[in-house]
Amino acid sequence: MSAKTQSLLWIAQRATAAVLAICVAVHLATIIYAVQGGLSAAEILSRTRGSGGWLVFYLVFVAAVSVHAPIGLRAIFIEWLGWRARSRDLALLAFSLLILWMGVRAALGVFG
Amino acid sequence: MRVLVQRASGFQEFEVPREPSQTVLDVVTYIQRRLDPTLAYRYACRVGMCGSCAMTVNGVPRWTCRTHVDRVLKDDALSVGPLKNLPVIRDLVTDMRDFFDKWARAGGQFKGGRTKQDAFHEIPPSSADRREVDKAIECIGCGVCYAACDVVAWNPEYLGPAALNRAWTLTKDVRDKAKMERLRAVAGDAGCHSCHTHMSCTERCPKQLSPTAGIAGLKREVTKAMLHGEL
Fold first, then answer.
1. Over its length of 112 residues, how does chain A's per-residue pLDDT go in tens digits?
2. For residues B66-100, b (16+ Cβ closer than 10 Å) or e, as one string?
3. If you placed Cys at B177, which of A105, A110, B113, B157 could pair as Cys (CB 3.0 to 4.6 Å)?
4. Which residues of B touch A8 (CB under 8 A)?
């Protein structure tokens, strides 16, 4: 991987961190608000089902996580496991696609 | 005082008399001259200019010629070892080749664009770029920051704080013509983007420089170059 691509990954991680700062804050505020009267599946679904706003919010959240987390893991793999082979980036790409797929599936699940 | 010196066979203990204004380098010199002439260590100027006498003192990298025993003595004892993150040649002497090769790899050479026929390049000392250079230029190449850096310990490819600090001073030097080449050299996993901003280099630098600030500057410059499609 070229130094240019590595720099691009760094920028992508910082940019998604900025997105996540907002998403996590909204997510936590929603949790605190939602548990006030007890938490139930029906209550969650009543908020998310058919709501385009929440669908977009969670899709953005999931996309940011699937970019941010594997790049962070990449640094951990380099520094703590000494994993420097190409297999590392392929494994991380697979991990990224896995959490993207799981996240999108969950966001669509509570929407439809 | 009791002095523990780290050698290949382990820590060796010496008894060294206390003197007024005694430095750690004085202690090591006393051991080598009076107690054990086989002890290997490195120094040159003795006044904090040459950067050759850095060692690990009580677990912390320091320039020994300017470190007073008063400041570091604990329970009348002192430990001295070679700098971390560098191969040991013998006793307190480390192999600095990797350290300085990385300066070259980080584009540490000045590349000017003028010849001797041209006039001098006038740089106002008050200009923003020159002030950035001034903050970082007093590095003596002692290797203390390199020994203090966690990222160097974890990732042997990492160029390290001193080499990146040097690259930063040249990036801000308006006379230099190799800016993009240098930014390409310091970008990515081996370069500025691997810095975790632990600031150990800044904490330990005997010249009170902040390689961390320079590395952050390099990250900004690389990002700007990427966004302009210049990298």
1. 888 899 999 999 999 999 999 999 999 999 999 898 788 899 899 999 999 999 999 999 999 999 999 999 999 999 999 999 999 999 999 999 999 999 999 999 999 8
2. ebebeebbeeeebbbbbbbbbebeebbbbebebbe
3. B113
4. 226
